[in-house]
């Protein structure tokens, strides 16, 4: 069976489904190809959404156990129903994947389930368990995303040595878990399990948690996660992980270079993700992935084959759902003749621990390395009335600004609802607002976002005005 389209999108993650919707809105006959039975890719099925569902559930449990008493709420017999904990997450995922089926129908996008592999630059074979279909198209958008990666000596067996995917659907609550990697995914899943009482150890190779972000954020997060009794071993190098049947043992060199071992119910490997192009048969069209597996594109998201575009985790840049979404829109618009623009420095990075961490723009380390002069304004949540009311006083807002023109160079937040507050900073930086414009704007009181105003006031040389 052969079918003809204008644009075929391969992969239905946040990059792919957004690209398909935009393509259809622009009037193109569009299809989307997905190898799994549900739409939504990593983000919807085994990434952002299920992780946030478990983060929210675990935070409720933790608050009930730790903070309700202070609010005057006494509970007896508090228990965690782990099956329901995982089951609610599964429901949330289902609601989102069903929503995507609806969106595809509404936008008249044909959905083909099966693995898409190129035959040549205008034909894609979709192989499903029961049939093969060849799609003919003028354009293709590769949005095949990424998969978890590992390190030498650590073989992921998905039983005891697991990835984030398995950790989101464990059959029973683990008593203990060792997590290799203190990056975003590692610290989020450490929070989930530590809050519900699992003994969690993070082993991180560098000397900081979330090492890609501003160093002060990593330090503050270390303190906050310490309050959850998470053991964090920084500057430690994992050598091997072994499945013992009912547990896993991790061997590593500690900060002094001494060999140590830890045994836990599970070893969760959270050392990053690699671009995924398996099964795409890129050699048929002459696309050669880079050494790190990524597909190279130009500023219009075109690969070396002009009618084949690529977006999301499979190309260079931060592996984030919102980056993939924006690229999806822009790739469809580029096919339509648009000139894409995306400021990668302003793609916000967010960590959904509690307190949350969020940042946009340059870090202090980047400004120093580039020799760019900056002033710092910092406001602690301890001084915020809103944060005191909700008992969320850990953290701060730090703004980095140019001394000469008052340009905002970077905003780094660790604090309550930082993931939402950062949008204000991105708006300001995208529109080149100055420090003065930021502190003269009216912020509702009392809010977490007011801390931004105070940080900008501090950076301007005036003192903070809020409590
Ligand atoms: P993906 O979402 O990976 O989708 C690719 C799709 O392509 C998959 O469905 C795959 O099955 C399909 N595919 C692959 N090859 C083929 C083929 N040959 N034929 C057909 N289909 C194919 N990002 C955030 O921004 N915020 C978060 O809070 C966040 N949390 C995360 C938490 C976890 C635990 C993880 C693992 C990731 C998280 N991410 C988060 C990252 C985010 O999930 C990814 O950046 C995002 O999903 C990338 O989107 P994508 O469209 O490029 O690819």
How would you describe what is shown here?
It is a single chain. This protein has 467 residues and is of the alpha/beta class. The protein folds into 3 domains: 2-148 and 274-344, FAD/NAD(P)-binding domain, CATH 3.50.50; 161-271, 3-Layer(bba) Sandwich (FAD/NAD(P)-binding domain), CATH 3.50.50.60; 355-459, 2-Layer Sandwich (Enolase-like, domain 1), CATH 3.30.390.30. The protein is built from 13 helices and 22 strands. The strands form 5 sheets. Strands 1, 2, 3, 4, 5, 6 and 17 form a 7-stranded mixed β-sheet that branches. Strand 1, helix 1 and strand 2 form a beta-alpha-beta unit. Helix 1 runs parallel beside helix 8 (321-335), helix 3 runs antiparallel to helix 4 and helix 3 (48-66) runs parallel beside helix 6 (184-195). The longest helix is centred in the first third of the chain and has 25 residues, at 82-106. 46% of the residues are buried. Bound molecules: flavin-adenine dinucleotide. Flavin-adenine dinucleotide is lined by residues 10-16, 33-36, 41-43, 47-48, 51, 115-116, 143-146, 164, 185, 276, 279-280, 312-314, 319-322, 324, 352. The site of flavin-adenine dinucleotide has 37 residues, from helix 1, strand 2, helix 2, helix 3 and strand 4.
